[in-house]
DNA sequence: TTCGTGAGTGTTACCGTTCTCAACGTGATC
DNA sequence: GATCACGTTGAGAACGGTAACACTCACGAA
């Protein structure tokens, strides 16, 4: 910077003003400085800037160290939006969604002076850990099923509505009731899907079948599917996500139950290839990239008014049903 | 830091020595400093450290802004290894695998003083762009099918061997020849799989069927599958990846060709749920997380000996065949 | 004429580290 | 007993920016 100043015949401060688009610089001077910067191929040193301003133009993301579809796709939504806003994105992953590992991740990001944090927070442990983040560090939680009283903004998909959509769709097709291949019971999102499903059945006066705990992958779905396939009265299944649905589909196939002729199946997520399952899966679509963008917008807004006393907004993203070929009417 | 020094009754320099594990500090002094640090809850300011040392303890990753399975999983391998080595990971994604966007990403990372870059480089444009990175910035490319003369280390899976494994497996089962549902022709990895496939057929004296250009997803696989299903002589198909295989599977099913009874199918990647396709997919497994770790190790090594005149290592990871239920013997 | 005002610019201090080098024991060596 | 090496410590100057403030000048109002 000193060299640029010398070459342009101005003080380093004027150079600083130019790079920061300060208004009070004569056009002619600005041009001279810009020319000097170009000819010296000058790039501002962000570390020095960070040191002086305590602002790094870097955002932190806390993710879960497992290849779950949702979180992955959100990363890209966040990153591209962050780039547009002039921020770089750093990621810290946690091996386990527990208090301590998350705190550690926050600490690591804080040491690197991130200006704000977006946490993929599917379990409450993450959210509570986040409340212990250093004061003044803006946080946004995305995912999970918040209590509504978080001290920071959240973005979530409306899982209850999504589950309701799926269940009602099956009911409308004439199924007496709908069985559920659930996710892990200690994940609020899985629980919210159970709730939406149960409520809908209850409202329709349908029997509410028992559920058993699962996980998010096809292996778990397969187990659930075997259990359900063993029961000849099962004609409709709502799976907690598409991967589970894949396992269910296979279990049904193995026991000779045709989909959708004998049993209808609905998933959740609308993963890229679920339209090519056998049969193509009817599912509840959620736009993860969009959620990432929303989270980022919220974070930037939160950072801008750090002392904002207004209650933190809780964005609820509406999912919608994608009709494909895994569901069919039932006439009994 | 000044406060810590004052509390411990030493100079700031001694505090610095303590945090950097400098040997020449009396044990008693060190203890006193550590105690002071603890009681003041001191954290070193990394921005200041970066400014002084030109070392940020941050690594950059250049990724492709699309949810392809491979790159995703690598990120986690890289991140957790980086964390263990005391580095934070920043990501810069590119919307398009072309020269200019990649250079822009490099620039963005360089501005933030990353100590090194790992680029997910499935296409040569990324690699060549990388050669224009600022001198002294260590780079590692992972993926693609390098020319072998890159000025920096690379990590790649041995696609040719993988394809050979798949093709030979089908040949060994008694199939007269093997058809290929190819990926995008301008991706070296897809091309290498074509090469391995073709070589194997050639070596076995089998007919080499024509291929048509595709993409990496199930939709493209479905198209390929329809084309292949129309030809009654097709009894074995090697798909360039698992998602393509999924589409192929469905196309075959739709045209009444049973898998594996009528047609055998092999995939590539071993995605998490491919064991639950219908039927469970025999595929070529590659360990993306491990590749990420290897890439990181290479990068750290490369950074340590920045002036290393020794030729950059090109790590080739061996894939292996996972046998499941989508292939069967053929007796003609 | 005098003064205030605001645009344009420069001066100096400061952000929190590490680096360089000098200084101060202390014990071993001659 | 002087010298020397070495372990231990401290003082001051970087590192490359930004913030705060002072200064100059031109212009319009009193």
UniProtKB/TrEMBL annotation, chains A, B:
Its keywords, alphabetically, are: DNA-binding, Transcription, Transcription regulation
- Extract the InterPro entries matched here: HTH_LacI (IPR000843), LacI/GalR-like_sensor (IPR046335), Lambda_DNA-bd_dom_sf (IPR010982), Peripla_BP_I (IPR028082)
Going by the entry's taxonomy, the superkingdom of the source organism is recorded as Bacteria
Tell me the SUPFAM superfamilies matching this sequence. Answer: lambda repressor-like DNA-binding domains, Periplasmic binding protein-like I
Residue ranges of the HTH lacI-type domain? 1-53
* Protein's name according to its UniProt entry: LacI family transcriptional regulator
Q: Which organism is it from?
A: Actinoplanes palleronii
> Upper taxonomic classification of the species?
Bacteria, Bacillati, Actinomycetota, Actinomycetes, Micromonosporales
